[in-house]
Predict the structure.
Amino acid sequence: MTSLLLAAACTLPGTVRAQSGYMPDETSPHEGTWLQWPHDYTYGRAYRDRIEPTWVAMTRALVTSENVHIVVYDIAEKARVHNALQTAGVSLARVDFLVRPTDDVWVRDNGPIFVYDRDDKLTVTDWGFNGWGYDAPYRKDDRVPGAVARTYGLPSVDLNDVVLEGGAIEVDGRGVLLATRSSTREPNRNAALSQSEFEQVLRDQLGVAKFIWLEGAPGGKEDITDMHIDGFARFGTRDTIVTMSPADLREWGLSDADIATLYRATDIDEAPYRFVQLPLTLRDVVTGYGYKLGYKGSYVNYYVGNTVVLVPEYKDPNDAVARSILQRLYPDRTVVGIDVRNLYRNGGMVHCVTQQQPVAL
């Protein structure tokens, strides 16, 4: 059964065959950034209104760097969002809209993952998305990658029999993938695939040759994502892993074994990565409307644009510390703080709600 599933994932009718392409790292040049705009159709107006300022701030920063592609629920939402950006004084010269119903905002996880195929043609890989293992509404979100490919005339690979969220993986652009097993293979994600079969799909579609697997949160849910990698460890550059101190990683929920595996990581040539550590917030996060979350925030969930780096901010003393560290790591980009306190109550930060589209070669 598993071998049939693997074959189907790569050769579904009407799609291109397994492509032996590769996924560039996030610091590679972007054509643009994708956002899914908050709406009130799933979780109500209070939810939308509390987090929408984060999207306005991200758009304001990103339009100085690249195109911004915004997914809006319907025509009425397109007009509303257009007016909101205009009212906020955000330039719309590099903004376009895709009208497409969505369940929520987490485009990193449900949206298109862009790769270059074997002929270096920009391609959409359309993986299955099931609400992080059926934990949230997902059916509208799962259709977004296909809509992007059709609307923008891009080839796509139908991989909907394999569940993969963009926040669950990190690639260094040189053939190494970093991920947790708990957020990629569990009872409701890819249970029918063996580890080797799952890795073969990733090798073929993302161009990776080496895997750094952490266990993550096996047998328990640290969060709805089952411990996505982009909350605590990222490839900052091709030779750098951005993460936390071992003590902060323990507070985040990682085991000592995972921490040791992470800090022993080597690249495709077996050379050790260099490590940059970002702190957790000094204090537990409190939302903009006064709700005390009871836990600290991560700065690792930042996003790298062409000329800007969007870093989560929590109105915490360590905001400035994180900005300074990232500015040294990315000296040719401007680090911009984005208030994510209200968004963080719902489980994510900046990286979770952005998705890069690489330039066409």
Summary: The CA atoms of residues 99 and 312 lie 27 Å apart. The chain is about 30% helix and 20% strand.
